[in-house]
Write a structure and sequence with these properties.
alpha/beta; 2 domains; 3-stranded mixed beta sheet; 10 helices; about 45% helix
């Protein structure tokens, strides 16, 4: 994930990072325009942005789904193994670099990476005449392979101010006072027998929905357009917030109730945002 170290200088769990997809694409396109500017009568246009990531069981996350629906973006997914490590991503980068260069589809490529394993792709792409512009994130010299840096035609890095335009750290949930429920509970979802617990669960679900970024809401709506339930990366944070509020784990009935209230709150937030 982009800029994990850049915002606070220490590694952050991915679940705490909020990505503004539109702004990160804008910044990437700025770099591409700067590195491959118009030359005389020749106009270098963007082919597309390739976005590489890992996914559990090759199942895209809501964030990845949202990115895949954006113009000029192709999402390419490797997989995440049982140890939480990305696998197959570097090989996708190398394959695409070589094939695009071989077919003459590109003359310049901006590569945001630091992994030694992609160096062979850089070398072969360069043999086809492609210039490779290596982009890093401050402090990039500590996270990029020295050999890869030497191989690239140009090197540059995003500073913290640039990264902050598209990447932020979510606030860590904290226990807050109980408030009354905000919406009427549909009969289709059974309410926990303890009304006080039900109120706490509903309030926590709304608080979590309120804390989501615009990008989070969009990614959830994209997910719900084709799938049911709540993605694991959101579900885990929702249940953790509620556990902190009520001081214990939730039973199955309470979990169903919490998920329903959260889903309603997210859709209500999206509807409010879309009002003129």
């Amino acid at each position: 994930m982009l800029g994990i170290f850049s915002l606070r200088g220490v590694k952050q769990p991915r679940t705490l990072l909020a990505l503004d997809s539109a702004n990160v694409l804008l910044e990437l396109k700025k770099v591409a325009a700067n590195k491959a500017p118009r030359q005389g009568f020749l106009s270098h246009s963007l082919l597309r942005v390739y976005w590489y990531d890992g996914a559990l069981a090759l199942r895209p996350t809501p964030e990845q789904e949202q990115l895949a629906h954006l113009d000029d973006v192709k999402v390419r997914l490797g997989f995440i193994n049982s140890a939480g490590q990305q696998k197959g991503v570097d090989s996708l980068i190398v394959t695409d670099l070589i094939e695009l260069a071989r077919l003459g589809a590109i003359c310049d490529a901006v590569l945001l990476s630091g992994d030694e394993d992609v160096r062979v792709g850089v070398q072969i792409a360069q043999s086809y005449g492609v210039r490779i512009h290596l982009l890093g994130i401050e402090p990039s010299r500590g996270s990029q392979s020295k050999a890869l840096l030497q191989e690239a035609d140009t090197t540059s890095e995003w500073d913290k101010a640039t990264v902050a335009k598209f990447l932020s750290i979510r606030s860590v949930p904290s226990t807050v006072a109980t408030a009354a429920p905000r919406v009427v509970i549909p009969a289709a979802i059974a309410t926990p027998t303890d009304s006080a617990i039900a109120a706490q669960i509903e309030n926590a679900a709304h608080e979590f929905a309120d804390s989501l970024t615009e990008g989070d809401v969009k990614s959830l709506l994209v997910f719900w357009s084709t799938q049911k339930g709540i993605p694991p990366e959101f579900d885990g944070r929702l249940l953790a917030r509620i556990r902190a509020k009520i001081g214990r784990a939730l039973d199955a009935r309470e979990k169903r109730f919490a998920r329903a209230r959260f889903s309603d709150a997210v859709r209500a937030k999206a509807a409010t945002a879309n009002k003129p």
